[in-house]
Amino acid sequence: MGKKNSCLMQTVQHSEQTLKTALISKNPTLVSQYEQLDAGERRLLNKAFKPDSDLFGPITLHSESDWIISHPEPPQDFEQFFSDPSRKAPSPEKRSIYIQCIGSLGNTRIISEEYIKWLKGYCEAFFYGLTVKLLEPVPVSVTRCSFRINDNTQNLQIHAGHILRFLKKKKPRDAFCIVGITMIDLYPRDSWNFVFGQASLTDGVGIFSFARYGSDFYSSRYEGKVNKLQKVSSSDYSVFDNYYIPEVTSVLLLRSCKTLTHEIGHIFGLRHCQWLACLMQGSNHLEEADRRPLNLCPICLRKLRCAVGFNIIERYQALVKWIDDESADIPGVSRGHSREDNVNLPKPVEAFKEWKEWIIRCLAVVQK
């Protein structure tokens, strides 16, 4: 799993019994609910506490700044998730995830449009059985949020809390949640340097930025640096007219898919995972986020399955299909734009190929 080459190499080891209880619980109702799952689904989920499993491994810690060490929090097993009184679940009337783009995601309109479709398709496969809908993208000015130039990184940032307020007002009636995505960096309050994303579980809203996921954000050559604002008025959003957008690469798409599904996972009531290597692990920095797998461990998969109600096989098949469909949506459909807009951008899925092999191995276990 993790590469064993850095200073503090520890694994978070739990006993088989601990993992088994975290997954199945000792509550008779939840045990019998587990026993009603399809035998193949149970065979896969049981890999959580089989020490010989090559599908699910322990969490590895690489440095003191890793999330589990620096943010101690109580773990959440399946039973705690199931009985959490504040947890919100989709209902027949509220089964849609809405995605609201703020500003452009790509350097051209066509890249922006394709990118958001790729993310939509990924979320539809990941939260299989729910509908994902795209809202018309809006410029920053529409949100009326505060903004600033970061003193350290010299890049533009927008206020996450103000965006959440904007999204909450816009939330459609049939929405389970509405999430904003942007290529502009975020800050939660003046004293903070930045935040990757922020969500309000009670309101079912979230905002996530992919700005720091471009390959060049942390390089000295980063082109998103802005000259100090000439005391611009707080309502002059023209500074965002041509803000820097990183090149769309497979790694950027992979990181965006990870962040989006991790954060929407929180809105479903999944807390940070401390059981096994899992998408729902917390991450403090980019290197740690990159180590996190794209997949849920069996304990978190049972939580999401309970919230959404999908069949595990169908969900995995949908994820494989998304990776295999190199183009977004229906190929060859003219969008009524000029001819040069009709180039079908291939979806950059190279970074997902290894994960696809992993899903196929999981499907083999379920379908044995």
From TrEMBL:
Example GO BP: proteolysis
Named cofactor requirement(s): Zn(2+)
InterPro entries: Archaemetzincin, MetalloPept_cat_dom_sf, Pept_M54_archaemetzincn
Entry keyword set: Hydrolase, Metal-binding, Metalloprotease, Protease, Zinc
CDD domains: Peptidase_M54 (cd11375)
A GO term for molecular function: metal ion binding
Gene3D superfamilies for this protein: Collagenase (Catalytic Domain)
Family per similarity comment: Belongs to the peptidase M54 family.
Function (record text): Probable zinc metalloprotease.
Name the UniProt record assigns to this protein: Archaemetzincin-2
Gene designation per UniProt: AMZ2
